[in-house]
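## retry 2 of 3
previous attempt timed out at serialization; input unchanged, resubmitting
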Amino acid sequence: MGEKKVAVVAVGGNSLIKDKDHQAIPDQYEAASQSMEHIAGMIEQGWEVIVTHGNGPQVGFILRRAELSLHELHPVPLDYCGADTQGAIGYMFQRALYGQFQKRSMDKLAATVVTQVLVDKHDPAFKNPSKPIGAFMDESTAMQRKEAEGWAVVEDAGRGWRRVVPSPLPVRIIEADAISTLVRDGFVVISVGGGGIPVVEGEGGELLGVEAVIDKDFASALLATSLNADLLLISTAVEKVAINFNQPNQEWLDRMTLAEAKEYLEQGHFGKGSMEPKVRAILGFLERGGRQALITNPENIERALKGETGTLIVP
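## retry succeeded, writing output
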């Protein structure tokens, strides 16, 4: 991809919704702008950047809105929720980056690619739905939905019942070549939003959307591999990765090798729904020939790139 260093930056969910009181669109835009400021700083340092992002809460809002208007409007299938959020969040990032580039007198432009990600229709995840989505329900509503719409439902940590969908592994980024071309031409690309829109191949090789959710960090790592990126940066809620997290002997890590990270994983140091998938995604990237990965929070991105903070993971 020429001389420039290429980085895939996965922006965590907290980069759009700070808390329960700041969920409205203007609040989301404000939060997005803060994250994009740090990404613009990274681009100013000479990186070519592909931004990826989560979309869990936004998909939840669309589903809830559809549910409340069922007496008047059609429901929205999950793959279309993914496409809707990729467009809306991409627009926020594009607009925020445009402002940053103006402010810094940089000749750059961001573009969003609505991204489909191929999954295997025989992935065992389809037989074992595990990813909670949408609103909480009481038990009787959950059972009605299960009956009427064939949903898989689970009781979620004492907070109520929720629908669960499969979370298959990403196999191929359908739009990888388009993304690669845009990056080569100097565009900042926003892609694989929410892990990408999950599609499977039909009998004739056509693509069919499926009701599933792909882990966004796994999809970002696969994209980084596809683009032969120099760096996979996963931005999250913490400045560094810790072992013995929240224990008296907690230890922050500045750097891990592939072997050390595997060992810590096996010892159960990383939270199932939080740090574990991020570390697993990074291990996949490094095992497929990736050179380095970094975990930090948005406000420390520029410092972490200089080696001042964050957790660096190397082969």
